[in-house]
Amino acid sequence: MKSSQGESTPVRVPASNSTPLGSTSKHNGIKPKMSAKRRVILILLYILIVVFGLFAGGFTYFYINILGKIGKAYTPFVSKEDYDTIDFDSLDDFDAETSGDTSSSWADGGHTGVYVNADYPIAEVDQIDPDVENILVFGVDSRGTDDVECRADAVMIVSINQKTNTINLVSLMRDTGVTIQGRSSQDKLTHSYKYGGVGLLINTINENYGLDVQRFIMLDFSSAADVIDLVGGIDIDVQAEEVKYANQSINEENQLMDSSISLLSYSGEQTLNGVQAIAWARIRHADSDFIRTSRQRTVATALISKVSAMSYLDQLAILEDSAGMFETNMTSMDLLRIATNAMGMADNIQQYRLPDDNMYTVQQDPWMMIVDWDAQLPLLKEYIWGDS
User: Can you give the pLDDT at residue 221?
Assistant: First the structure.
């Protein structure tokens, strides 16, 4: 310290054993007591470090061991402008009514991969409403793991609406007559997947239904059955007239898989295992394709409801065990975001089928539903986005 004349004046320090806080006395080796305020700060810091460590470890486990196992289908995208300039070959001579190679069986533990045709990239479209995300979920009617170029089945749009806090399921009838790139006349929606893979399927849906789908999840029916088995089956009210036809599908699956899944022995409310539930959902001859798609939505809703009722740890276990059973073009962060957005909506699921009643006529040869699009599309728009 300097005096007024600029000379240094020594500072007097009281004689004591005190030392700077947090240091150790050179004289007696005793660490002085820490102030209460500093102890609280350090305790909070330790807690934050531990919590962060647990979170980082848990996130790494979730990211690598769960999300990392999900099958990723890398599908090409192009801008809508570039897509419109592509010179597509004619598909008029393509026969999509028959399925492809069925020489391989799922008994080996595999599943049918997504059919990605580089000649039919996904055309980029803008999301219509940032609070409403539409995701394509579909199955395929393949009969073996090598049967990749097959038809789409159980085509469904899962619409997550954050504004209304609802999940809206929209079944798209597979035999709906639609305009498909490369076909000179209307053809069935289900055929678009076999013609050009998932890219042509998504583009066909967006162009005909006025949607903004960019992401998808695909399961073959063997994988779907495995997922249902993971949750211990689902409860379904089986009608008396459905038992016979469900058992026919179960017998077909038993022959294909060399398995011995039990047949249904009675009607009414009962817990179905995976093969039984999928066989029930795929019934085609007991009534109509309208009821069939209703069964598919019922299975999807029952599965969502059962998983949502599980504990968080059980849900993680189910997700980890089922991660390799489906394929998607969503990134791990996409899946995390969508799961977060959909959290808490499982009790608010709504269902819709398209075409709606009185919105179509039937063409007999080949059998197709010819939709009155001018009347149907406004109803679909209102259902998904709430627009009149």
Answer: 65
